[in-house]
Amino acid sequence: MSNFLVATALTTLAGLSTGIGSAIAFFSERANHRFLSVATGFSAGVMLYVSFTEILSKAASWLNKDYSKSLSHWIVSASFFGGILIIFAIDQLIPTAENPHEVRDRDEVEELHEHTGHGLHVHKSKLLRMGLFTALAISIHNFPEGLATFLATLDDPSVGTAIAVAIALHNIPEGISVAVPIYYASGSRKSAFVYSLLSGFAEPVGAIGGYLLLRPVLSNAVTGAMFAGVAGIMVYISLDELLPTSRAYSKGHDSLFGLLTGMVVMALSLLLMQ
């Protein structure tokens, strides 16, 4: 039960960090793009390293309890790429303009500090459509992220904490990305901030809902396959979202520095916890 409460708390905190991103966009004089670059690179490094060295090995360990080593590796591989296909399919169902994982350029972000924006001149029906699609897109994207954090924490709180930190860091620039279209849709900084913050609740809701839905059928094989699928989702998010975002905001080797630092910190954390 204690692990359940820890998992719930970590998933909630990671989700609500979207509000930090929108706060940076609205209340700072100018977004710190180098910080965003290093932070998203760091998050990608953590998620890539923990996926390949920890989560996939845990998946194999669970499957080895019921299957031969050879068959377990086949299932792990299939589940890993299955996770990638699932998150890819989700991305394809969301129009690019409303997809919160599409990188916003610096001009769009800086325009949030002006009293008027070009989005305010868009037809009301288009604004409403953009706002609704954005809210839906945020929720859909946050479900698998929340489930990944939740499941990892239930199995190993130390690993779950590292993943939660990575998700939280990646949610900061996502909060900015979410705030931009919602601000354009409503013309209100307050509404954009509130919706950005509330969108983070999709992570704990998706995590707990997914866990309760799958709990009756959980077995060694199902748990192993789920862990491998989570690893695939995290790798996809890192390569398709985090690294492009980091590169978009970077100067020089900021992105690479963040990536390598994330890997080193994750490696040291795992070694020290042995």
How would you describe the overall organization of this protein?
The protein has 274 residues and is mainly alpha-helical. The protein has one domain (2-26, 38-272). The protein contains eleven helices and no strands. It is globular and about 55 Å long.
Detail the topology: elements first, then pairings.
Elements: H1 2-16, H2 18-27, H3 33-64, H4 69-93, H5 106-110, H6 124-155, H7 157-186, H8 189-199, H9 202-214, H10 220-249, H11 254-272
Helix pairs in contact: 1-6, 1-7, 1-9, 2-7, 2-8, 3-4, 3-7, 3-10, 3-11, 4-10, 6-7, 6-9, 6-10, 7-8
Strand-residue proportion: under 5%
Q: How many individual β-strands?
A: 0
Structural class: mainly alpha
Unreliable stretches: 108-124
Measured between the Cα atoms of the first and last residue, the distance is: 23 Å
**SSE order in H/E notation?**
HHHHHHHHHHH
Helix content range: over 70%
User: What is the count of DSSP helices, taking H or I runs of 4+ residues?
Assistant: 11
Mean pLDDT: 76
Please give the radius of gyration in angstroms.
Answer: 19 Å
Approximate shape? globular
What's the story with the biggest beta sheet? none
